[in-house]
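Page 42, continued from yesterday. The earlier attempt failed because a stray header line got pasted into the input along with the sequence. Redoing it now with the clean sequence only.
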Amino acid sequence: MPGRPTRFVLPNGKRMAVLFNVAYEGWESGAAPGIGPMGNPLPAGVFDTQAASWGAYGYQQGIWRLIDVFTRSRVRATVFASACLAERAADTLRALRDGGHEIAAHGYSQHRIPALLDPDEEARDVSRCVELLSDVTGEQPHGWLSPRGTPSSHTARLVTEQGMEWFGDVYDTDVPYALATPAGTIVALPFKMEVNDLPSHMRHGNPPRTFLEVFDDTFQAMYEREGDGCYLDVTVHAHVFGRPHGAWTVEAIARRLAEHPDVWIPTRLELARWTTQSEAADDR
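This time it went through. Structure tokens are written below.
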């Protein structure tokens, strides 16, 4: 049986970390979100124009509102970006870059789930994603989260081959760790699902205030009981809580955290690099 995970030590005596994430998702032409506000799916083979229009809100308005929220709150987020948005909303990606946010790779289109692709298709998809985001932002993405958070058995290797530094498709522990792949080692950053608007609001129908309550309860429990070296993800989707009814919760969470100077708010890249630095120090 594996032993108890080693406690992860954060920099500068910080007690815990909170990561703000934006799932900035797009669907290529002819595809639409599989879940929408109407709830009842259309018959198989019928294109859901309502869901497609609802999903487009993310790049037409939602991402801009979230940029404003983060600017007012002085928070830098990690943005999981679908690379097809580099083709239709490049200005939003440049605005995110200029705001100091990390732009991570989130596949080309949200309906192309790595676990459903053959290895050659997936390799092309990863390369296409890296190329498009790099061309628009001027910097290669340093991290990866798969569409639906569902990798194949090849994904970690493929993104390591692309020179990425962190891999988010892991859910098996609470702390970052070094993940060995045939292409080398990459930092595995577990993606925490507790504070996430898509399951909470869209799948289970909770009002936005519940999102805030879940954050409050989870944060308090971790802050009081977990001790040093834990982290919590706060994740919203630009087409879901980028709307006025949900964006206020992100700002409310940022205000709460401003009262805790012993809480670190890094990007995922900063957390990954701290993990690598800490492991190197432990090896000396």
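Notes: The mean pLDDT is 93.
Reminder to self: strip header lines before submitting.
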